[in-house]
Design brief:
CATH class of one domain: Alpha Beta
CATH superfamily of one domain: P-loop containing nucleotide triphosphate hydrolases
Distance between the termini: 60 Å
Structural class: alpha/beta
Number of strands: 10
InterPro entries: AAA+_ATPase, ABC_SmlMolc_Importer, ABC_transporter-like_ATP-bd, ABC_transporter-like_CS, ABC_transpr_FbpC, P-loop_NTPase
Helix content: 25-40%
Oligomer: single chain
Strand content: 15-25%
Largest sheet: 6 strands, mixed
Keywords: ATP-binding, Cell membrane, Ion transport, Iron, Iron transport, Membrane, Nucleotide-binding, Transport
Protein name: ABC transporter domain-containing protein
């Protein structure tokens, strides 16, 4: 796989308070880097700098060898997905997904065919003519995901995109993300505070704490690092499972 994104020495302060400290990592095409971190650790700031919505104090960003810092957000060929889908309320599901193709002047017949195919892939075909307010939270997030995918971004930035969904819908969206990411070979940076979500969606893993990013060469090392608390959580659930299936000899 060819290297897509290179981040070197990225630093950012707000009001003299360090938020990101010398962030350095690489991301190859088709990879999903899952960045785990607690609230306030700098995850959103990192994504905003990559998207061009914040400027770093120091460091370099390169996408396919191109210096990104002078490139405006709308020319970086990235899409930033939030917890809130941020759909156009006056447009149907179909036209929300088609929006990126419309503004790129893709011929209508060609654009409509692409949208129909993607809506079917996202299990949204029967909702194509609905307005966003007629959809469930999970359906709205799928529409947002579709609107991002349709323009084939070079990099997808996901800021806890499933954080507002209930547990089952969140699990369904994680599996959908996995399936579509693999099928389309999407390169993504996915930030989350949920360790299980990180393990589910990631192909590579990192931990962000107090502005410092640690990348892990293997999933095993990610799990065993005490800062992630994953090993302790697994031990806890294993003990609960053993207790639940232990014979009750007193009765």
């Amino acid at each position: 796989m060819s290297e897509l994104l290179q981040v070197n020495g990225l630093t950012k302060q707000f009001g003299g308070q360090p938020v990101l400290r010398n962030i350095t990592f690489r991301l190859s095409e088709g990879e999903v880097l899952a960045v785990l971190g607690r609230s306030g650790c700098g995850k959103t700031t990192l994504l905003k700098i990559l998207a061009g919505l914040e400027a770093p104090d120091a460091g370099t960003l390169e996408l396919h060898g191109q210096n990104l810092l002078p490139v405006p957000p709308n020319e970086r060929q990235m899409v930033y997905l939030y917890q809130e889908p941020l759909l156009f309320p006056h447009l149907s599901v179909f036209e929300n997904v088609a929006f990126g193709l419309r503004i790129r002047k893709i011929p209508k017949a060609e654009a409509d065919e692409q949208v129909r195919a993607l809506l079917a892939e996202l299990d949204l075909a029967e909702h194509a003519q609905k307005a966003p307010h007629q959809l469930s939270g999970g359906q709205r997030q799928r529409v947002s995901f579709g609107r991002a995918l349709i323009i084939r971004p070079r990099l997808l930035l996901l800021d806890e995109p499933f954080g507002n969904l209930d547990a089952q819908t969140r699990a369904d969206m994680q599996q959908l993300f996995l399936r579509v990411s693999r099928q389309h070979q999407i390169t993504s940076l996915f930030v989350t505070h949920d360790s299980r979500e990180a393990l589910t969606v990631g192909t590579h893993f990192a931990y962000l704490d107090q502005g410092l990013l640690t990348s892990f060469p293997s999933v095993r090392e990610f799990i065993q690092d005490p800062r992630t608390s994953i090993a302790a959580e697994l031990t806890f659930w294993e003990s609960i499972q053993r207790t639940a299936y232990q014979p009750d000899y007193e009765n």
